[in-house]
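user: Please review this fold.
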Amino acid sequence: SQFPADALKEKKNVGYMRALSTEGVLSTGASLIVASVRCGPPEVVKALKAASVPYVEIADTFDAKGIGEKIRLIARTTGVEAAGESLAAKVEQDFADLAKARTAVTRPARMLFVISNLNGRVVVGGKGTAADAIIRLVGGENAAGDINGFKPLVDEAVLELAPDAILVMQQNASDPVAPLAALPGVKMTPAAKTNRIFAVDGAATLNFGPRAPREAKALMARVYPAAAGGK
């Protein structure tokens, strides 16, 4: 987690959620463990569930209902039901506003979500992923919709998908757009030719937390400026 930024300074860090250690988590002295179902490795999760500290798993869902349920579950677990209900209602209203904004999209753009660009090979999000879900929330069509999960693609495959717009995850302070646009398989796509490659906050868009609908709405305005009232 990298949001809110103050949490990185004030809270103890147990490392990447898929590479946890039993001792590392329990050494924090926590009285409650709230964890994603994606946490691992499996043997560590099994050990943590067997420990004396209560362990609550949070489902991985990519829609308005799922986010509301996650918020309410965490609120009940931590004894702040009223605050949780208020936040869940706000997020659900944000999703309703997003759905209304999507009605202005008359021609869905073929979009590609690039998770990473390593050594000239891109990894894209196919169906069943948070990347696919955010594309649909924005009012687009996933150009990699025939691919399952996250997969690396060669230049020829990217060119063949012919995306109208490309979303690329911002992983650090450096600009991810220019290196991506320079790749042989990308620079000939409609997205590159029309300068429609957009850097996005990966955590805000893919983690499907309270910020997801507003991030999606802001992204929609960049992809469809005319529908958003721009020029």
Notes: DSSP finds twelve helices and eight strands in the chain.
